[in-house]
From TrEMBL:
Residues 2-123 form the Response regulatory domain. GO terms for biological process: phosphorelay signal transduction system. Keywords: Phosphoprotein. It holds the Pfam family Response_reg. InterPro entries: Bact_response_regulator, CheY-like_superfamily, Sig_transdc_resp-reg_receiver. This is Putative signal transduction response regulator, receiver domain protein. The lineage of its organism: Archaea, Nitrososphaerota, Nitrososphaeria, Nitrososphaerales, Nitrososphaeraceae. SMART domains: REC.
Length: 164
């Protein structure tokens, strides 16, 4: 996966980068919201979905994470955004009001494995396995996060209709 991260605390940013690169992900790091937005927009000119996910700190210098998310989603509404924030309730309320959608949230502090698992859709794949889906075959297709989530939602609807 190709992941863009914006985090103003350098030690935390380095931990994220090392944990994700250890799992063979390509990581681009930025130290503030303005830099993150500039990197994103430059990459967006090259390809329609430049990053599999953008991880944003909520409070950053030069431009906060909410403003970055708002501008990224205005340019690319299907971009996966994950907020890493100590202010989860505030971030959730802001995301609904300003972005008109709920984005994924991680409550700081969190274990690095939690970030990796969320990015790699571990929870979704576990639910798919419970529905007897052949996970290896799905992963071989290299689906996007949205495709995997949509598959799970569709299978859950089918399962519920059989029960009814």
């Amino acid at each position: 996966m190709k992941i863009l991260i914006a985090e103003d605390e350098q030690d935390i940013l380095l931990q994220y980068k090392l944990a994700l690169e250890d799992k063979d992900h390509h990581v681009v790091t930025t130290a503030n919201g303005e830099e993150c937005l500039n990197v994103y927009m430059k990459e967006l000119q090259k390809q329609a979905m430049p990053f599999d996910a953008v991880v944003l700190d909520h409070r950053m210098p030069k431009m906060d994470g909410m403003e970055v998310a708002k501008r990224i989603l205005a340019a690319n509404p299907r971009q996966r955004i994950i907020f890493a924030s100590a202010y989860v309730n505030e971030t959730l309320v802001d995301s609904v009001k300003q972005l008109k959608q709920i984005v994924e949230l991680l409550q700081k502090p969190f274990e690095l494995d939690t970030l990796v698992d969320l990015l790699e859709d571990k929870g979704i794949y576990e639910q798919l396995a419970q529905l007897n889906v052949k996970i290896k075959e799905i992963k071989n297709l290299n689906p996007t996060h949205d495709q995997v989530r949509d598959l799970l939602e569709g299978l859950n609807r089918l399962h519920m209709s059989k029960i009814s």
